[in-house]
Design the sequence.
């Protein structure tokens, strides 16, 4: 199979619809990462997504719809706090989990009676979803457990020959996956942290919980189980307070012949002297936007990435830390 990267226009949208309606998958941009989309009503098409990625079949997917899509056809009840949050954020990097009407393929939610729904703000994604006018089930468009893709080229590097079409939407500005919010209870609970923070949600709707996944439980959201976001090289992760140990390890590994890069924000890099580093930038938003790109850069130029956690770890950095831990392991 030949994989094409095409700009989003009438020709590529027509081709994408043909592929989707024939049970295939199309990679498309969002403001967070690129998604690998298939018709959520088509059970074989959804199951094929898992095969293309090599994704475990107990890891739920998110359904993406355009901003005018009637989600009441997919979910049974939307609480008032979720309506308030949706009005404030959608379209945007927030996924909300509702009780499902079970109208889409059971494979989407991996047997759960809930459905995760998202309305991305990326203009290209909106054109694609509006043209299809279907709920599109989509995980990130990469090989399972590899670093999530934030450009069409990242998708091509992982899925060349596995899918027909990648819709070109440029670099994803958000950089880490959407916040996932469970809206099936009396108050919202964050299942996965992202660009929409707990503080932002509490400011609008009041109380907001934070779910802690326990081994052996069914995954209620993507990104809970398994190792994720991992570069194809060795990794280590140090806390900011252990920066000196990270620098000693950096020098030790260089002496042992490793090609080593530090992964850190600019404030940390200034303390590190002459050490070669991959910069996450100066701000929380830049760290989120740059994380996956720098992990992919690192796997191409290093045999070992030593990540140093940011000093600030609340807000958006909660989501960044979640990805760093899953990509590089627990802090040393």
Sequence:
């Amino acid at each position: 199979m030949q994989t094409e990267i095409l700009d989003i226009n009438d020709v590529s949208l027509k081709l994408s619809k043909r592929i989707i309606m024939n049970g295939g998958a199309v990679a498309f941009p969002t403001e967070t990462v690129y998604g690998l989309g298939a018709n959520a009503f088509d059970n074989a098409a959804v199951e094929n997504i898992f095969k293309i990625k090599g994704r475990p079949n107990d890891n739920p997917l998110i359904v993406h719809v355009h901003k005018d899509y009637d989600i009441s056809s997919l979910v049974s009840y939307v609480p008032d706090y979720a309506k308030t949050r949706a009005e404030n954020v959608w379209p945007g990097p927030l996924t909300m989990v509702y009780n499902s009407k079970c109208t889409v393929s059971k494979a989407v939610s991996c047997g759960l009676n809930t459905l995760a729904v998202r309305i991305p703000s990326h203009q290209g994604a909106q054109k694609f979803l509006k043209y299809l006018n279907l709920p599109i089930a989509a995980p990130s468009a990469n090989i399972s457990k590899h670093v999530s893709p934030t450009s069409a080229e990242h998708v091509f590097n992982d899925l060349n020959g596995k899918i027909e079409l990648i819709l070109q939407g440029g670099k994803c500005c958000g950089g880490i996956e959407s916040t996932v919010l469970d809206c099936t209870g009396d108050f919202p609970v964050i299942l996965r942290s992202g660009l929409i923070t707990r503080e932002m949600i509490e400011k609008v709707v009041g109380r907001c919980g934070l779910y802690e996944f326990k081994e052996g439980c069914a995954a209620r959201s993507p990104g809970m189980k398994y190792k994720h976001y991992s570069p194809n090289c060795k990794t280590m992760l140090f806390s900011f307070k252990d920066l000196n140990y990270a620098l000693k390890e950096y020098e030790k590994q260089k002496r042992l012949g490793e090609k080593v890069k530090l992964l850190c924000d600019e404030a940390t890099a200034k303390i590190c002297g002459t050490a070669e580093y991959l910069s996450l930038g100066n701000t929380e938003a830049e760290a989120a936007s740059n994380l996956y790109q720098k992990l992919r850069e690192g796997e191409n130029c290093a045999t070992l990435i030593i990540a140093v956690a940011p000093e600030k770890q609340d807000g958006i950095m909660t989501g960044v830390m979640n990805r760093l831990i899953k990509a590089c392991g627990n802090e040393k």
User: Anything to note?
Assistant: Residues 70 and 135 are 10 Å apart (CA to CA). The chain has ten helices and 15 strands. The mean pLDDT is 94.
